[in-house]
Every structure is written in structure tokens, then in C-alpha cells.
Give the backbone structure.
Amino acid sequence: MTEIKATNITWHEGHVDRTVREGILKQKGALIWMTGLSGSGKSTIAYTLEHALVQEGRLAYVLDGDNIRFGLNKNLGFSPEDRTENIRRIGEVGKLFVDAGIITITAFISPYEADRQIARETVGEGNFFEVFCDTPLDVCEERDPKGLYKKARAGEIKGFTGVDAPYEAPTKAEHVIDTSKLSPQDATIELVAMLTKAGKMSA
Amino acid sequence: MTEIKATNITWHEGHVDRTVREGILKQKGALIWMTGLSGSGKSTIAYTLEHALVQEGRLAYVLDGDNIRFGLNKNLGFSPEDRTENIRRIGEVGKLFVDAGIITITAFISPYEADRQIARETVGEGNFFEVFCDTPLDVCEERDPKGLYKKARAGEIKGFTGVDAPYEAPTKAEHVIDTSKLSPQDATIELVAMLTKAGKMSA
């Protein structure tokens, strides 16, 4: 390293270590991976958690259909292959966000166990928190916030998870939430406790 | 919004606004897009800038071949189509990082003007700073830090930018650096000044 006395800028060969950014942010990078049926409450909880965290001065960020499906993954559809590539890319972006020190929350149906496992391995154990929104299908379908179940039942949408495409329930999720019994606020309290217990934020 | 008095957590419908995160970080999101030939100094300047910024307590992050080509874009090669998709994805990830409030630095050859223009439009004027590492080919080739020019001249690598694939020089870069004349440290000082002038960081 060649130090320039006047500016204190030194030359470095590689990336800044993650721990340096975590020191600046006074938190540790984490990926909260929300999974569940359409209408199971993933996005609602993700946003509620994001807002709660930034209110405490934490750097949090939600990746969901709004900013991924219309951006990075706009060239992907809903075939099994495209769903797999969709989740693969989200896992890779999540890894970058975690490396940047951000508490990142993803909200995607992510119906395949194998795809979620790849995301877990990409991001790494200790960084990855799978949160299963285990809300019964009939509750999700009654909510039908985007009218998608109705269209799927009418045959206007093909390959819709829970109707004519499978959802493989997690078997080793770090946390399970049934939003037919738990409010988004109470779910958020549980997730903040989970992150705190995992040492991602000072109490 | 339903307030829970005990916890002060409220329910929100959408994403946290970028300005909220920028307030927490006391900086504004920006994407510094380094472009130039292999060996032109892109990565060296990117790392030097990243280290200089975090030393000042700024949240900065470098996207380069190390963390993109072996991760998000590992399913892409070097054909013109794959190069275009490579840059498209990097632009989309850069947009997410800027939205998260991060001063982001990308270091990719990015030889095509049209691809860089797409990245600029994706990230948005005012957020995007194209920095052209305008180092002469003979200097880059003499440096040849990875031995790639030697292999390209020997025909062991096909489609190598500057040898048998084109590099389209930027015509409207926000900043131009010739690293045969300017050290990485001095380049960093110029880029910090550029960011400060653009209002991305308090002085």
C-alpha cells in the first residue's frame, strides 16, 4: 500500500470486507426469505418489517415482484425453468445485499424446495432465514388481493401455484407464520426478535 | 395504518422510500460506472475509491467480475448477446443498490455504447456517473495484469476487447481518466470531488 500523506488514501487490491460495512451500519447483513402462496402475507409482512427496521435506523431493503420482476428478471416467465432462474438470480442479488451489510427481505412465492435450497447455499447458513408464510390456501384464495386465484380457477392463468402448480412447503424453515392467526405487526415483532437473537442487530 | 401503541409498529402498503434510507446513511445513492479496456485501471480505481469512502464512514460497494461473473451472471459468456445481457443485469442490480442508498461502483469493460446507454436509462440521470478509463491500448497491453492480451494475441482467447472485439469509447462520460498519467489515488480524489459536487455526500 502506497500512502499519500496529504489525503490519507491508500491503494488496495481487493474488495472492502463485509465486516467494515457492518461496522459502519452497526448491524449485520441478513437475508429474510419469505416464502408462501400468493396472498399468504409475504409482501405485507416484508413491508411492515422494512418500515419497522428503518424507523429504528437500520438499513433494510425489500426485494419483491415490484422491483425484480419488472427489472432484473423481466426476461423471465413462469415456466419451471424460468422460476428456477428467477429464484437463482434473487439468491445471487440477496448475497450481494448481505455482503453490503443490508438486512434484506425477499417476498416471492418460491414454490420449489430445491430452488430455495440453492438460495440458502448461495447466501450461506447464518445469513439466510427462511420464513414460511403457512397460511391455508382457502384463506389466501378468499383474500385474493390481486384477483389471481379467480383468474386461475377460470383457466385464464395457467401454472398458478396452489391451483394447477405445486407449492412445496419448507421442511426446515427458520420461522413459520400463519397470517390467518397472526397480524403483520405481531409477525414483525417475531422477526425482529429472531434477527436480534441471531446477533444481526444490537438489542 | 393501524398503530400498535405498545410497539409503535404500523402497517405499510409499499416499499420504504429511498430518501428514508439516504437519511439514515447521510448520503445519496449513486452509481459510478467505470468503463474501459482490460488493464485500464477500472478495478484498481474502484477498490481505491471504495476503501476511501468507507474510511469516511460512507456505505460503498463494488460490483465487478469477482462478485458478478461468478455469481449472478455465471450463466453468461462473452458473445455480443451475452455481453449485452451481462450489462443489462448489472444495470438492474445497480438500480437496486442506488435505491438502497449505496454509493455503488461497477468495474466492467462494458464495450458497447448502446449497453451503457441502457444502464444509464435504467439507473437514471443524476444517479449515473459514467467514468471512462481512457488508458491507451499499448499501456493496457503492456500491463496485461491477467495475461489476457498475451493469450488473445496468441489466438487462445477469441473476441477479446481491443484485440479482435471492438471497444466503443464513451462520447458523454461524466468523467475521463487516463491512468497512464493519473495515479489511482489522484483518480479517487477526482471522483470523490465529483460525488461531492453532485450532492451525493456532505462535504
